[in-house]
Write a structure and sequence with these properties.
Layout lengths: L1 E5 L6 H14 L3 E6 L5 H12 L6 H18 L6 E6 L2 H10 L4 H7 L8 E6 L2 H7 L9 H18 L2 E4 L4 H21 L1
Parallel strand pairs: 1-3, 1-4, 2-3, 4-5
Helix pairs in contact: 1-8, 2-3, 3-4, 4-7
EC number: 2.7.4.9
InterPro entries: P-loop_NTPase, Thymidylate_kin-like_dom, Thymidylate_kinase
Keywords: ATP-binding, Kinase, Nucleotide biosynthesis, Nucleotide-binding, Transferase
């Protein structure tokens, strides 16, 4: 099973992805948490040269870097029937962020066409103003104008791909209980097939 958490920074997606992994492991299931950009060579390069230093600004080049990092990420993940993989960001992030910077969405989807379709996608939805208030450090994408566009793209993707939109202003516990309920229900339906 592949479960993805998406949303702007400050939406709580990392917190909820880690809580879900812990709760599933506590239930005796095998859950694995990983994030994008990764801790690998390409992911570290993205964090340093794209997000922090802003040395690479061409949105198409950035989209390709994320796709390359994603490819190495997928090659490092164990996909088997008894493992639940939980990703903190996936190709929807590329669509939302690079799309907000003007890269055609069909181009982003094409360069990420190797990526598998997740079983569940949770979109942690929050007003960008509130999301920014939750952050203690910022990268070059974290400004209100960009995040308004990113959120709009995310909400369109949610409709198109059947993402589960979560109100990220609720309490951490309330959100995690809702998420675990959806995951348990989805696993039950999948087992019944």
């Amino acid at each position: 099973m592949l479960i993805v958490f998406e949303g702007i920074d400050g939406s709580g997606k990392t917190t909820q992805a880690k809580i879900l992994a812990r709760r599933l492991n506590d239930l005796g299931l095998k859950a694995s948490y990983s994030k994008e950009p990764t801790e690998g060579v390409i992911g570290r390069f993205i964090r340093q040269e794209v997000l922090t230093n802003g040395q690479i600004t061409d949105p198409r080049a950035v989209a390709l870097l994320y796709a390359a990092d994603r490819s190495t990420h997928l090659n490092s993940v164990v996909f088997s029937e008894d493992v639940i993989n939980i990703f903190d960001r996936f190709y929807y992030s590329s669509v939302a962020y690079q799309g907000a910077l003007g890269v055609p969405i069909d181009y982003i989807l094409k360069v990420n066409s190797f990526a598998p379709k997740p079983d569940l996608v949770f979109l942690m939805d929050i007003d960008p103003t509130l999301g920014l208030k939750r952050l203690n450090r910022f990268d070059r994408f974290e400004n209100i104008e960009t995040l308004i566009k990113v959120r709009e793209i995310y909400l369109n993707l949610a409709k198109q791909y059947g993402m589960i939109v979560i109100d990220a202003t609720k309490s951490v516990e309330e959100i995690s209980n809702k998420i675990i309920g959806v995951v348990e229900e989805t696993r039950s339906v999948a087992k019944g097939r």
